[in-house]
Design a protein that fits this description.
heterodimer; A: about 270 residues; mainly alpha; MetI-like fold; globular; B: MetI-like fold; two-stranded antiparallel sheet; 2 strands
């Protein structure tokens, strides 16, 4: 299907222009992260630093607690993602392939909670987690996202398409239910698991509002909280801030470079099918 | 016997996830409704005050100012975001030279966190920053103080949000467009329909489900946006960028008025629920 030439050329120009618009802030962040304080607001602004200053990064570890923020981010995002993959796929499998009383109600609950906006739920979530005595613990960051309605729904939809005969055959061969789940169902669901894993890791790595209200203890702060606190401090200058932002973005950006298709697929197709 | 064992296994697989959903989503939602009828400051036990939180909210000019800012932000961001992402999806033909790399680049801001977006854009929008300098170089010597002037502050967030979300909606529309069979366009062309008429009478109607989904997602994502507002202006100057999520945060975590904060949460949930139901019914109408 060919489009008329002016439309094609105009569309191409628009794509190019928007690519520049998308890329420039990211480039500006990395370039700024290597500049000296004087180069930041020089006129005319240099696109690249004369000499790249890697000290901007080492200072984050020497004089600030970015080593600890990194560790906390890796730990909470990693643990939350692992739990979410396990619990959501178990629940998705149950809703897709088992028959029992209350299954309809459980699915209904998943669909209702799927619609609950997280930001609006933050106030009551805080009150509930506080009553549980979990404020200022790692558990407060991990447990609320250890299973998600989105994850359960995604896994259920995917697992509906697994052939029942396969599971029956395994049962006749005497395989236990847990073994069937681990050895047959999970390996066959790898594409859905990859999508959920990426989505969940990215969400938890970037999450800000919930850690902000759940934590006071700086020893538990994650990277987004560390950056936010740094920018609140009066003397912090932009080259340091850009180094921190670059450092926090690098892991997800690298993942994105290597797993691009999975990223776009995980965020989009799952949503449309729902 | 076997039936029973299988039933138990099914329930066993479900229970852990269900526990998480109930304790951290369902219970808080119900709890919020209960707390919204009380005065609660975390120190003293909640005291029942009926609908007072809601009536005082509706009488509070700050609540309405925040609602107005939110609606302005939603419209000013949503309209260009929708138009631009659809246009880009239409232009994004996989056979174009560099199409894959352009798609990759345009989606990249989606991956970056809102906190990072906030600090990077604060750097860009600085009075002596790159944006004002670029404007100066093309002959606009405006010297705009983007984040401290009430006239421009919301536009700064519009630009940031369009930048951050464009790739996501472009990919959504591209996926929707890919489901339209090319034969439809060919048939319309044979019947003599021009590019505009094909777009208007073939593409748009078939894209309606995608459109409804995109609008709902846009609504939820924009309404939930918090970090940039909190980190870049904290609602200022003089409340000109105090969106409802920030208003609610301040009520609860700054003024410790958890009754009213819960009332705002309930109102937000109600609005989002309403939009979702609306989307669902419109979608069903389309399908039948």
């Amino acid at each position: 299907m060919r489009k008329p030439a002016p439309l094609r050329i105009g569309g191409y120009a628009a794509l190019l222009a928007v690519s520049g618009f998308a890329l420039l802030p990211i480039f500006w962040m990395f370039s700024g992260s290597l500049k000296s304080g004087e180069e930041l607001f020089q006129v005319p602004t240099p696109w690249l630093p004369a000499v790249p200053r890697f000290e901007n990064y080492t200072v984050l570890f020497r004089e600030m607690a970015f080593g600890s923020y990194l560790w906390n981010s890796v730990l909470t995002a990693g643990a939350t993602t692992a739990l979410n993959l396990l619990l959501s796929s178990m629940a998705g499998y149950s809703l897709a392939k088992f028959r029992y009383r209350g299954r309809g109600a459980a699915f209904w609950l998943v669909m209702i909670t799927l619609l609950l906006p997280l930001q609006a739920a933050i106030v009551p979530l805080y009150l509930v987690v506080r009553d549980m005595g979990l404020l200022n613990t790692r558990a407060a960051l991990i447990l609320p996202f250890a299973a998600t309605p989105f994850g359960i729904f995604l896994m259920r939809q995917y697992m509906l398409s697994l052939p029942d005969e396969l599971l029956e055959a395994a049962r006749i061969d005497g395989a236990g239910e847990l073994r069937i789940f681990l050895r047959i169902v999970l390996p066959l669901s790898l594409p859905a698991l990859a999508a959920l894993g990426i989505f969940s890791f990215m969400f938890n790595w970037n999450n800000f509002l919930w850690p902000l209200v759940a934590l006071d203890n700086r020893a538990l702060f994650t990277l987004p909280l560390g950056i936010a606190m740094m920018q609140g401090e009066y003397a912090t200058s932009f080259h340091q801030l850009m180094a921190a932002a670059s450092f926090a973005s690098l892991p997800v950006l690298l993942l994105y470079v290597f797993l691009q298709r999975h990223f776009t697929n995980s965020m989009v197709t799952s949503g449309i099918r729902g | 016997m076997i039936q029973r064992r299988q039933q138990l296994a099914g329930i066993g697989f479900l229970v852990p996830a269900l526990l998480v959903l109930v304790s951290f989503l369902a219970v808080p939602a119900v709890y919020a409704l209960a707390i919204s009828f009380t005065r609660y400051d975390l120190v003293n036990a909640p005291r029942f005050i009926g609908l007072a939180n809601y009536t005082s909210l509706f009488a509070d000019p700050q609540f309405w100012a925040s609602t107005r800012v939110t609606v302005l932000f939603l419209v000013a961001t949503g309209v260009p975001l929708m138009a631009l992402s659809l246009a880009l999806a239409l232009a994004l033909d996989e056979r174009l030279r560099g199409a894959r790399i352009m798609k990759f680049v345009i989606f990249a801001p989606v991956v970056v966190s809102e906190v990072v977006a906030a600090v990077v854009w604060r750097f860009i929008l600085h009075p002596y920053g790159i944006l004002n300098e670029l404007l100066f170089r093309i002959g606009i010597d405006a010297d705009i103080s983007w984040l401290t002037s009430p006239a421009t502050v919301l536009w700064a967030f519009v630009i940031l949000t369009v930048w951050k979300q464009l790739g996501y909606f472009m990919v959504i529309f591209a996926t929707g467009l890919a489901t339209i069979p090319p034969e439809y366009h060919e048939a319309a062309q044979i019947d003599g329909a021009g590019a505009w008429r094909r777009f208007r009478h073939v593409t748009l109607p078939l894209l309606r489900p995608t459109m409804l989904f995109a609008i709902t997602m846009m609504f939820v994502i924009l309404l939930n946006s918090f970090a940039p507002f909190y980190l870049m202006t904290n609602g200022g100057p003089a409340g000109a960028s105090e969106v409802i999520s920030l208003f609610m945060y301040n009520l609860g975590f700054v003024f410790l008025d958890f009754g009213r904060a819960s009332a705002v949460a309930i109102l937000m949930m109600a609005v989002i629920g309403l939009v979702s139901v609306l989307q669902f019914t419109l979608f069903r109408e389309q399908a039948t």
